Amino acid sequence: MSEAQGSEAQGSEAQGSGAQGSGARGFPAFAARRGGRARGQSFWAAQWTEAMEDVWPEEDPLKKGRSFARTGRIGPITVSPGRVAAEVYGGEETYTTQLTLSVLDDDEWDLLWERTADRPAETEALLAGDLPEDLLEAVEDARVRMLPGYGDLDADCGCDALDHPCPHATALAYQLSWLLDTDPWLLLLIRGRDAEEAVEELKSALLMRALAGDDEEDDEPYDEEAGDGTAGGTAETPDDSLQRAAYARPAAALPALPPLPEPPAAPEEPLTGIEADPLDRLAADAALRSRELLAYAHGFGAAPPEPLDVWQDTVRLAATHPDPRAAERLRTGSGRPAEDLDRAAAAWRTGGRAALDVLEHPWTPPEQQTARARTALATAWEAEELPPVDVDGNHWTLTGRGLQFRLGRDGRWYPYRRRDGLWWPAGPPSADPAETLADLTGLADDI
C-alpha cells in the first residue's frame, strides 16, 4: 500500500468511528536494546501488557515477541484509531505487521466523559494534561473498553507464521508498551480520540452539566417567605469552578516533531577514484595502539604494550588490508591453516590485540569477577527469559545454541558464534555481559 493510500485508509477508518479529527501519529523505530525488560514500566504500560498477555496467553509467542522486540528490527511505528502498524525486518524479508482494536463510538465516548465528570480529581488531572490511574474506574462505570479484551484485539502479519499471534505482532505489542511509558494518551488515540479531542469533549460534558444545573434551579418555584436558604433570600450561584478552570487553561503544546531521516548513503564509487577503506583500517589500528599506550600512561597497565610478534603483526595486516590478494599472500606465508588467520583477523577487527588474545588464550577469572557477571545478568534479564549458560573459565556458552561470550583480560565481553565446528567472533565487545548476551540472542532470533 502506498503512503497516500495508507493515509486515505486511516482517514476513512477515523470517519467511520465518528472521530473525524483523530489522525495517525508516527514514532521513530526503537534501537536494539541490549538486555533489560521487554515490558513497559509505567502504570498504563503495565496495564496494557497485562491485558494483552491475558488475551494472548500462549507463552511461546510472547517469549519470542519479547526477544524480537529488543532486536531493533521493527521499523517506525504508526498509531492511529483502531490500528498500530510497523514494518518488521525478519531476516531477508520485510513484513507489514499491525494490531487492530475496536474504536469507541460517539455514544460510548459521551458516556465515558459523563462518568469522568462525576470524579473531580480525575477531571482535574485530565484537564491538566495527565492521564490518571483512577480513570480506569470511570471506564468501568461507563462499561467501555480502554484496554484490550477478548475478541477486541487482533493481529495481522505478512510472515504467514503458524502461530497466531506471530512473534512479530507480540513484539509490536510490547514496543507499544514502551511508547505508553512516555505517552499514555496513545491508549485513547487507539480507541478513537487524541489528547486534544478528549480534553475538549470533557470540557463540553462539564459545560453541559453546568447548564443543566442552571436550568434546574430556574424551574424551581421561589418562596419569598422562606427564601432559598441563603441570607436575604439571595439565590446561591452554582459551583462552576471546574468549568471556568477548564476554559481558562492555555492550549496544550503540540507534540515534538519526529527526528529527521538518516542522511542519504554515500555513493558506492569514490568520487576521487581512491578507495578509503585501507585508510580507515589503518586509522582504527592506530587508535587501538594509542588506547593501549594511554591506558598504560594513566596507570591501567603494569607495563607498556609489547611490540607485536610475527603472528600478531600478520593478523593485523590481514585485518587492516581488505585487498584479497594481500590476504591470500598472508595466508600462504603464515604457515598456518587459512581458517586460523581468517578467524584471527575477524577477532582483530573487533578489538585489536586484546580481542586476539581472547580468541587464542583461555584463562580463569577471579571468582569475584565471575560472581559480578552472574549478578549483572540476573538483574538485567527477567528470570523466565535468561537463557541457561555453561561457564568454563572465561568462556560462557549458551546451552545448545551455538553461541558464546568470553571475558577478556581487559574486562570486556566478546561475543562468539559457532560455525563449521569452530568459534568465530560475532561482533564488537561490551563492558556489560548483559549487553553482549542480548546481542547474541538477537543474532539467534532470526524469526
Write the layout of secondary structure elements.
Blueprint: H1 3-17, E1 25-27, H2 43-55, H3 59-69, E2 74-80, E3 83-90, E4 93-101, H4 106-117, H5 120-127, H6 135-142, E5 153-157, H7 167-182, H8 186-191, H9 195-219, H10 241-248, H11 277-297, H12 310-320, H13 324-334, H14 338-360, H15 367-380, E6 389-392, E7 395-398, E8 403-407, E9 413-419, E10 422-425, H16 433-444
Instruction: Give the low-pLDDT segments.
Output: 1-21, 226-235
Shape: elongated
Q: Give the total of beta strands.
A: 10
Rg of Cα set: 31 Å
Q: Give the helix proportion (percent range).
A: 40-55%
User: How are the strands of the largest sheet arranged?
Assistant: 1-2-3-4-5
Major β-sheet, in short?
A: 5 strands, antiparallel
Q: How much of the sequence is in beta strands?
A: 5-15%
Order of helices and strands: HEHHEEEHHHEHHHHHHHHHEEEEEH
First and last CA, distance? 24 Å
The class by helix and strand makeup works out as alpha+beta
Mean pLDDT metric: 79
Question: Helix count, per DSSP?
Answer: 16
Give a written overview of the molecule.
This protein is α+β, with helices and mostly antiparallel strands and 447 residues long. 48% of the residues lie in helices and 13% in strands. It has 16 helices and ten strands. The strands form two sheets. Strands 1-2-3-4-5 form a five-stranded antiparallel beta sheet. Strand 2 (74-80) and strand 3 (83-90) form a beta hairpin. Helix 2 packs antiparallel against helix 7 (167-182) and helix 4 packs across helix 6 (135-142). Mean pLDDT is 79; it is low at 1-21 and 226-235.
